[in-house]
């Protein structure tokens, strides 16, 4: 199954090894801003119909790579596959985002949660990974992913998206022991899930901690970082003689990059509220950095996009260890041509930063 990678810039940059230019991929690069995605989704039915069909998930993963010279592919799936496989009943309502039929609210609810088998209940994911890996033919590496325990817990306890996190923070402050049981079970589920993605062909891993930034510094360490640490410690970091870089991304976590780097991960995702020069100084060579253009810049003129790319490249400075990305997912109303301008700018302007 293993083709040698034709383009390994992304892997090398994650491991801080020399590259000829800064690699780039975009969070949510396969999705609704692409007309070909919207067409396939309309034919398939729902988003989950795409995710649960390995051939369709593979097709959607490859769509952005046909349009743009990206340096990595990311598995087309969702972070909520684990809670769904635990039996919570995931569904999506247009305009309101994801929700669960059976939210987790009590100790009995937590105790009843199974650890899903990645080759049974989540077989559609591991099958999608092996299908995509085969179809990529070694062109670029495939990134597998999961949500962080804290981020998954927010959706599971709230029963969907939330503005003030009252249910999940209520449980955390009223019944911290139950919250810890839930987070620990999620960490165990994520470890087997991500290791199965690696065994199925994922060449790098990323953990999305979308909601870590809503916690106080003390609670972030106790309820989010501690469980990401458990995951980093439990992951397969090498497969078929290749190192598997691990990226942690806490949105709004710019103040905590030093303690995140101390987990032993390889790379940290950074959103646009942190300057990359400050981030680089803070992590002091321990890890690579991924990011960090505001996705809304893609609404600007071509010149403004190019200027922002130049600013971010200059901010990181010379040398390897930077993976260019947006600071969060691409918005669905962005014109696909603007993503092209963005990617082309990174290609052209980043050469000067590598010798
Ligand atoms: O980055 C990629 O291209 C890989 C695919 C991917 C998706 N979701 C596809 C998706 C990844 C990595 C995710 C992660 C994810 N899912 C996160 C963490 C990253 C982040 O954005 O902070 C979160 C919080 C979710 C939960 C989730 N799933 C939300 C909030 C939504 C949007 C719901 C909506 O109606 O806007 C989803 C659905 C989803 N996941 C879509 C895609 C392409 C849109 C589905 C569609 O309507 O076609």
UniProtKB/TrEMBL annotation:
UniProt domain Uroporphyrinogen decarboxylase (URO-D): residue ranges: 23-32, 143-159
Catalysed reaction, written as an equation: uroporphyrinogen III + 4 H(+) = coproporphyrinogen III + 4 CO2
Site (Transition state stabilizer): 78
Keyword Cytoplasm listed: yes
Lyase as UniProt keyword: yes
Sites where the protein binds substrate: 28-32, 78, 155, 210, 328
Pathway this chain belongs to: Porphyrin-containing compound metabolism; protoporphyrin-IX biosynthesis; coproporphyrinogen-III from 5-aminolevulinate: step 4/4
Subcellular location: Cytoplasm
InterPro entries, per database record: UROD/MetE-like_sf (IPR038071), Uroporphyrinogen_deCO2ase_HemE (IPR006361), Uroporphyrinogen_deCOase (IPR000257)
A molecular function GO annotation: uroporphyrinogen decarboxylase activity
Keyword line: Cytoplasm, Decarboxylase, Lyase, Porphyrin biosynthesis
Pfam family, one: URO-D
Documented EC number(s): 4.1.1.37
Positions of transmembrane segments: none
PROSITE patterns found in the cross-reference section: UROD_1, UROD_2
Family: Belongs to the uroporphyrinogen decarboxylase family.
Quaternary structure and partners: Homodimer.
Described function: Catalyzes the decarboxylation of four acetate groups of uroporphyrinogen-III to yield coproporphyrinogen-III.
Protein's recorded name: Uroporphyrinogen decarboxylase
């Amino acid at each position: 199954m293993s083709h040698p990678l034709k383009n390994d810039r992304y892997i090398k940059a994650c491991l801080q090894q020399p590259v000829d230019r800064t690699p780039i991929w975009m969070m949510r690069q396969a999705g609704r801003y692409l007309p070909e995605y919207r067409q396939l989704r309309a034919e398939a039915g729902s988003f989950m119909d795409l995710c649960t069909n390995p051939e369709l998930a593979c097709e959607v993963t490859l769509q952005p790579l046909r349009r743009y010279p990206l340096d990595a592919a990311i598995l087309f799936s969702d972070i909520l596959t684990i809670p769904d496989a635990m039996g919570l009943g995931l569904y999506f309502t247009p305009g309101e985002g994801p929700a669960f039929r059976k939210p987790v609210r009590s100790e009995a609810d937590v105790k009843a949660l199974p650890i899903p088998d990645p080759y049974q209940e989540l077989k559609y994911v591991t099958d999608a990974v092996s299908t995509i890996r085969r179809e990529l033919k070694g062109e670029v590496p495939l990134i597998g992913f999961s949500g962080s325990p804290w981020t998954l817990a927010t959706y599971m306890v709230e029963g969907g998206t939330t503005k003030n996190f009252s249910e999940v923070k209520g449980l955390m402050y009223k019944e911290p022991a139950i919250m810890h049981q839930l987070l620990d079970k999620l960490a165990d589920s994520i470890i087997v899930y991500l290791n199965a993605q690696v065994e199925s062909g994922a060449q790098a891993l990323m953990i999305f901690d979308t909601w870590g930034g809503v916690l106080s510094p003390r609670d972030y360490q106790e309820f989010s970082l501690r469980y990401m640490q458990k995951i980093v410690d439990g992951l397969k970091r090498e497969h078929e003689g290749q190192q598997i870089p691990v990226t942690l991304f806490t949105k709004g976590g710019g103040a905590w990059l030093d303690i995140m780097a101390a987990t032993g991960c390889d790379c940290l995702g950074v959103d646009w509220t942190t300057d990359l020069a400050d981030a680089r100084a803070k992590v002091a060579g321990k890890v690579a950095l991924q990011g960090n253009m505001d996705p809304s810049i893609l609404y600007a003129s071509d010149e403004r996009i190019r200027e922002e790319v130049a600013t971010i490249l200059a901010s990181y400075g010379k040398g390897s260890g930077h993976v260019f990305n947006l600071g969060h997912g691409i918005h669905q109303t962005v014109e696909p041509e603007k993503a092209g301008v963005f990617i082309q700018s990174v290609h052209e302007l980043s050469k000067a930063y590598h010798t």
